[in-house]
Amino acid sequence: MTRKQLVPLALTVAAIAVAVFLVRRNRAAGPSQLAASGTVEATEAALGFQVPGRIVAVAVHEGDRVHAGDTLATLDRTELAARLAQARAALAAAQARLTEMAHGSRVEEIGQARSADSAAAARLQDAQRDHDRTATLLAGGAVSQETLDKSKLALDVARNAAQQTHDQMQLVLAGPRVEQIDAQRATVTQAEAAVRQAEATLDNAVIRAPFDGVVTIRNREPGETAAAGAPVVTVANLGDRWVRIYVSEIALGDVRLGEAAVISTD
User: Fold this and answer.
1) Contact residues for 111 (Cβ-Cβ < 8 A; gap 6+)
2) What is the DSSP letter of 123?
3) Residue 254 CB partners (closer than 8 Å, separation 6+)
4) Does 108 have pLDDT greater than 80?
5) What predicted TM-score, i.e. pTM, was given to this entire model?
6) Contacts of 146 (CB under 8 A, 6+ apart)
7) Mind giving me the DSSP string for 15-64?
8) Res. 18 pLDDT band, cuts 50 70 90
9) Secondary structure (3-state) at 152
10) pLDDT at 257
11) Residue 53 and residue 76 in contact, taking contact as beta carbons nearer than 8 Å
């Protein structure tokens, strides 16, 4: 390599060394300042009802501070309250029926069944005596075959009625079957679920603040009809704020991931 070729190379190396020295000196001197535009943002929640309906009250205005659990807006709950009352009445009826079935037949029902069985047995005995008497008269030629046939038919009817009455008495004495009680218990469970659903629907007709914050938008007014999920009130969580800064491409080299920064506004 000639002397003329070594001179430009030496100058280039010297320029790189000076640049590195200046960069290190600036970093050692302290943090650099960067002018950039940006915004201060916070987590926002656009709150709405889970059920549709007519709004009867919006308790807050834009700029109001709210606390978690505060009531912000309410729907007309007249119809929802009626549905809840209906569900509770159905549950009470199902529970009463289950209690009745679990206790078995009442004493009065058992007495009535036994009385009916005794009466049916007595009618069967009368029909049997009438038939026997008619058969005797027919043998003596005192009555016709048609009369005997009628007495036989009456005897069969009385016998069937007595059997049905006796079977009914046995059912009353035994009480409801286990399968019937299980089915009624399932009906009670279904009615309880219907009550919980009606209670949840009624509770969903009220908007409550999910966290402490500030109302930024009052989207709806009383008297309006709101669809399910439509924003009614927007609340910003000031406890969860951050700064979004837009850095120009020229200054990107001065920014390092994880580097501490102090931010101040103009």
Assistant:
1) none
2) H
3) 32, 34
4) no
5) 0.58
6) none
7) HHHHHHHHHHHHHHH-PPP---EEEEEEEEEEE--SS-EEEEEE---TT-
8) very low
9) helix
10) 83
11) yes
